[in-house]
Amino acid sequence: MPVGALPRPHWLLERLRRRLLGPLFDRLGYDLVPAVPDWTHRPLSARETEALIAAAAACLDHDLSACGLTLPEGAPAAVAAFWDLIGGAPVAQRRGGNGFNGALQLYVLMRALRPALVIESGVFRGLTTWITRQACPEAEILCFDPDLSGLRYRDPRARYHARDWSACDLGGLPLERAVGFFDDHISQARRVLEARARGLDRLIFDDDAAAHRLHAHGGPAFPTIAMLMDAAHGPEPVRWTRNGREFVYRPDGPEARAARALIARAHPFDDLHAATGYSPARITYVTLRDPGEAT
Q1: pLDDT by residue (tens digit) across 127-138?
Q2: Burial of residue 36, with CB atoms counted within 10 A of its CB: 0-12 exposed, 13-18 middle, 19 or more buried
């Protein structure tokens, strides 16, 4: 569906939101806003559209090069294809999940990696499954989430599992040509260790926030890859508070040390906000060392 054809809220509901429900929620300390995705707000003139695509492609070219990856068609063509594609996304989400920037980075990474198998941990409403399918039409996709009740898109060829990915038998699957995508608010150190134990060495992590920014993220997965790779941090625990609850991370813990030793490369992608104006993304591409390789 073209962006311009996205359904608008019924005029009566919109008037009710603006005049009654919005002020009520405001007094209670909440915002009541239409659940429209950020990509519905976009430039329409050719010059500005081309500038946005070119700026995003330049950032992505740099990031892909840093990861040792290339796109057969080049980043500008991939971004232009995504720009036309995202307007037809079957999932409209405003809170949680990926916005334009995160979806674009996932699309480009999957195009560059060309996996035969994608293991997706954390499905939410299904947008990232749809993005993965657009990028890799022939890939086998396994979707894991303890709660699949919020799905708005279900890929007809994917296999869905209402449990953690570590509890599933992956025997017989082409893990040497697989990519793991983790957007599940679980310790990223744990996911690195699980990936190595199961034969995956190409991983994509969402919500990879540095320790000094973790307080701003809901339900943070910690330690994040950025926290694991922070060589300047000593043994002092990292402490923060969110919604009245205190959290503590100890960078010298056994899980963190073991995961850190497995990581060969961890490249955080540019958040793309300066290039596109959309909400920043926090995607990081990770490769693991070959088994037996010295750290």
Answers
A1: 999 999 999 999
A2: middle
pTM for the structure as a whole:
0.88
pLDDT for res 84: 96
| Exposed / middle / buried, residue 283 (Cβ in 10 Å: 0-12, 13-18, 19+) | buried
The domains of the chain, with CATH numbers, are 1-34 (no CATH), 37-288 (3.40.50.150)
The pLDDT assigned to 244 comes to 83
> Distance of alpha carbon 147 from its chain centroid, rounded?
18
Of 144 and 233, which is predicted with more confidence? 144
Q: Which residues contact 37 (CB under 8 A, 6 or more apart)?
A: 89, 91, 92, 93, 94, 99, 100
CA angle centred on 51, ends 45 and 54, rounded to 5°: 135
Could you say which DSSP state residue 41 is in?
A: S
Residues 116, 176: Cα–Cα separation, whole Å: 9
d(CA 57, CA 10): 37
d(CA 164, CA 65): 33
pLDDT digits (tens, 9 = 90+) for 233-258: 677 888 888 888 888 888 888 999 99
Q: Looking at the predicted structure, is the pLDDT value of residue 273 above 50?
A: yes
Strands 140-144 and 159-161: parallel
Q: Give the separation between CA 90 and CA 172, rounded to whole angstroms.
A: 32
